[in-house]
Amino acid sequence: MKSNFNAAANNTGITESRDNEITTGGIQVVLTRQKSLETCTVGTLHIQTTNLVWRCKTLELPWLNNKPQISCIPAGKYVCRRLVSSKFGETFQVCDVPGRVGILFHTGNSAPKDTRGCVLLGVGCEISGNNAYLLASRAAMKTFMQMLEGVETFDLEILEKQ
Questions:
Q1: d(C-alpha 87, C-alpha 8), whole Å
Q2: What is the pTM of this model?
Q3: What strands, in cross-sheet order, belong to the sheet with 131-135?
Q4: DSSP 38
Q5: 16 vs 124: CA distance, rounded Å
Q6: What does the CA dihedral 55, 57, 61, 62 come to, rounded to 10 degrees?
Q7: SS3 71
Q8: 126-157 pLDDT, tens per residue?
Q9: List of long-range contacts for 18-25, beta carbons under 8 Å, 24+ apart
């Protein structure tokens, strides 16, 4: 069985926010894990600024007790810092993850092939059996960085869907 999750109706995934609860000058970044599969975890990343909302799909490794290189990181609150990776270019690192280092946001299409614990971004996601594949990862990463232009750090909250 194959299912398709799309991030948004337009190509960029950016929509104007109509939410009156946004804190002026604030940015909210939340990753909600939605589906756990044998080989990966599928989620949605939601970025909300003072006047824009953007969503994309995420792909992480499955939860295997936070074991480095084979597990997604624990749900919780983290600070993310801008950096330049020799492999992935300009991106953000998830900091202060217990027992883990080098957790980045970057492009990729499948887990575990394209990640060793990092968060992959895509415009959409297709699920087939116990595998998931991100769509338009480069486009999602480009928009992610555009949404965070001028931002050096942000707070990330990772939630497990109830």
A1: 28
A2: 0.84
A3: 2-6, 124-128, 131-135
A4: S
A5: 20
A6: 90
A7: coil
A8: 999 989 999 999 999 999 999 999 999 999 99
A9: 19/48, 19/53, 22/48, 22/49, 22/50, 22/51, 23/50, 24/50, 25/50
Rounded Cα–Cα distance for residues 83 and 68 (Å): 21
Query: Do the Cβ atoms of 56 and 122 come closer than 8 Å?
Result: yes
Residue 31, both tokens? 């990753």
Residue with tokens 């000058």: 25
């971004």: which residue's tokens?
Answer: 121
Fold of the CATH domain 2-160 = L,D-transpeptidase catalytic domain-like (2.40.440)
Radius of gyration of the chain (CA): 15
Q: Where are the domains of the chain?
A: 2-160
What DSSP line would sit under 92-135, residue for residue? Answer: EEE---TT---EEEE--SBTTTT-SSPEEEESEEEEETTEEEEE
Using one digit for the tens of pLDDT, what is the confidence trace for 65-104? 999 999 999 999 999 999 999 999 999 999 999 999 999 9
Measured CA distances, 86 to 91, 113, 155 (Å):
10, 19, 24
